[in-house]
Design goal:
Layout (H helix, E strand, L loop, with lengths): L1 H21 L9 E4 L6 E9 L2 E10 L4 E7 L6 E8 L1 H4 L11 H10 L1
Length: 114
């Protein structure tokens, strides 16, 4: 329980620090940033639209624990909202999900026939 609370607080502090480095300006919709200061955590930032309002979205990935968290930061109030946290270890072990034809296994089979 303490580790979870520490991780949440640490992630929030990291997101705040990241946001102060990136700046408060609103980048173009396609613009995004990747920040990996020490190699421990990876932060990805982009602007998205939520309910017709531009919101900064920051995804923080911990490769060591294979956990990902997503935050939304409202530019006007600077409020940070934790939107989701997920351990992605099982996700990364699936060979395919929500794939469309040709499926990855079909592509591999075509390549092996060459």
């Amino acid at each position: 329980m303490k580790a979870t609370a520490f991780g949440l607080i640490g992630g929030t502090v990291f997101a705040l620090a990241f946001w102060s480095v990136v700046g408060r300006g609103q980048p173009a919709a396609a613009e995004h940033s990747v920040y990996q200061p020490s190699g421990d955590l990876i932060a990805l930032s982009t602007m998205i639209e939520v309910d017709r309002q531009a919101v900064q979205q920051i995804a923080v990935v911990d490769p060591r624990t294979r956990t990902m968290s997503v935050y939304h930061i409202e530019p006007k109030s600077s409020a940070i909202k934790l939107k989701s946290v997920r351990n992605i270890e099982a996700d990364l072990q699936m060979p395919e999900y929500n794939a469309v034809e040709p499926l990855p296994k079909e592509i591999r089979a075509m390549l092996e026939r060459r």
